[in-house]
């Protein structure tokens, strides 16, 4: 029996060294670890340097994106990504704080999880609530990917024609809606 493989899109980032390793090395090693699981890597973007958010809140980030195929469910894939983060010393003490590794599941096929209403609630949160609150369940597509140059620019490297499961817009269209300041803040390494 042939197992169905779903395409998923993942954002990678980090801004803190892990021992003597720079974030670029951590991202590269994390990609290798992900590939050793039941996850087939299809494409990986260039690495980019992006300013910490909020500005001045820490060292610059290194960001990338990748597409994968997997037989895992969305929840099981997220669990695997969290295991990889833990292996690379990710500490979850502060929302949007510095981190050695951050792996965000951006989308999983065309899934809208857990449903359109909950997705919209998290997408539409004001900034102060976003800083203080995190969902207790998987929300897909990632509710703020359309607002983030550090996600969309790497995503366009490997999937400019990727279509947002809710809006139907391509990654390229979403990227082109960002301000020129947002776009210019993301520099290829």
UniProtKB/TrEMBL annotation:
Pathway: Cofactor biosynthesis; tetrahydrofolate biosynthesis; 2-amino-4-hydroxy-6-hydroxymethyl-7,8-dihydropteridine diphosphate from 7,8-dihydroneopterin triphosphate: step 4/4. It is an enzyme of class 2 (transferase). This is 2-amino-4-hydroxy-6-hydroxymethyldihydropteridine pyrophosphokinase. InterPro entries: Hppk, Hppk_sf. Belongs to the HPPK family. Catalyzes the transfer of pyrophosphate from adenosine triphosphate (ATP) to 6-hydroxymethyl-7,8-dihydropterin, an enzymatic step in folate biosynthesis pathway. The keyword Secreted does not apply. Its EC number is 2.7.6.3. Residues 10-158 form the 7,8-dihydro-6-hydroxymethylpterin-pyrophosphokinase domain. GO terms for biological process: folic acid biosynthetic process; tetrahydrofolate biosynthetic process. It holds the Pfam family HPPK. It comes from Epibacterium ulvae. Keywords: ATP-binding, Folate biosynthesis, Kinase, Nucleotide-binding, Transferase. GO terms for molecular function: 2-amino-4-hydroxy-6-hydroxymethyldihydropteridine diphosphokinase activity; ATP binding; kinase activity.
């Amino acid at each position: 029996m042939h197992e169905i493989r779903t395409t998923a899109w993942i954002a990678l980032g980090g801004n803190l060294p892990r021992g003597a390793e720079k974030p670029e090395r951590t991202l590269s090693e994390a990609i290798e670890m992900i590939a050793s699981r039941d996850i087939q890597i299809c494409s990986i973007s260039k690495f980019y340097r992006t300013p910490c958010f909020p500005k001045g809140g820490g060292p610059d980030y290194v960001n990338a994106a990748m597409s994968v195929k997997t037989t895992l469910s969305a929840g099981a894939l997220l669990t695997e990504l969290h295991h990889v983060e833990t292996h690379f010393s990710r500490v979850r003490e502060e929302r949007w704080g510095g981190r050695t590794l951050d792996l965000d599941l951006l989308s999983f096929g065309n899934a809208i999880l857990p449903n359109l209403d909950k997705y919209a609630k998290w997408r539409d949160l004001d900034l102060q609530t976003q800083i203080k609150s995190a969902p207790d369940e998987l929300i897909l597509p990632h509710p703020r990917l359309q607002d983030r140059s550090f996600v969309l620019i790497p995503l366009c490297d490997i999937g400019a024609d990727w279509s947002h499961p809710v809006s139907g817009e391509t990654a390229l269209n979403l990227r082109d809606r960002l301000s020129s300041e947002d776009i210019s803040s993301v520099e290829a390494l």
